[in-house]
């Protein structure tokens, strides 16, 4: 690949880390196991297209990936069934919080997009049908793409979320009433909570997102998605990846991105590199405050937005 190696970005990352203000926002507290994570923590990594990676701060500290996994589940389902998926989940920004129910009733139980919880439940249901073990399949994919065989579920986080999972259960039951979920809800929720509980560090996540910068090609050189499918996922990340803050994220960062309530955000510079940042202090919409600041600084300092 012609694109620069990961080390090329190290001085920019160091500059960002030196200037970052952490400690703003609050760690997710609706999942009790995440509430105790210190909002001051910060790490950031860049991966190049050839598997090189470098980072600053706590870039090798595993954290809870949460909704970032929705990107990988979507990719696997698109690889299995292609465009049929879009009969069951839309691709419009919701303008509503990630766990909102309100639009489902007006839209025949079809979630607005695959990155809000409603849409992610449909995607995980379809991955389960395709593979027979959705969360294990996802974990295997992430281990392969990150090159880290140690990746694991954090079953304590999964159990903590399950114990407070009424909202996701309500979403799943409501969608099922329209026929867009095919399996019983309890095992679907188990897979979804396990999926969200996968622990990864910034290096793992930047590497695992690489196929989206390589137009659908996996770490081992095999093709997961067509060029056009990879473009579709990047587009949906741009418009929906940070929920009701996607407009502001596009305005400030200008890259396809996906956040999670563990405080991580991944971003893709197609044909060039991927970036992952982690800082657990969240804003009211569930996005990392210092994480968005850091990505804003990254595209400002490097000029690398898609615009
Ligand atoms: N597991 C979380 C939930 O379903 C994921 C949400 C998120 O990261 N935005 O609420």
UniProtKB/TrEMBL annotation:
The record's family statement is:
Belongs to the glutaminase family.
- What is one process in the GO biological process aspect for this record? L-glutamine catabolic process
Which PANTHER family does this entry report, sorted A to Z? GLUTAMINASE
What is annotated about its quaternary structure and interactions?
Homotetramer.
For this protein, the record's InterPro entries field holds: Beta-lactam/transpept-like, Glutaminase
Q: According to the UniProt record, what class of enzyme is this?
A: hydrolase
Alphabetic keyword roster: Acetylation, Hydrolase
Q: What is its EC number?
A: 3.5.1.2
- Name the catalysed reactions: L-glutamine + H2O = L-glutamate + NH4(+)
Which positions are annotated as binding substrate? 67, 117, 161, 168, 192, 243, 261
Q: GO molecular function, one example?
A: glutaminase activity
What name is this protein filed under? Answer: Glutaminase
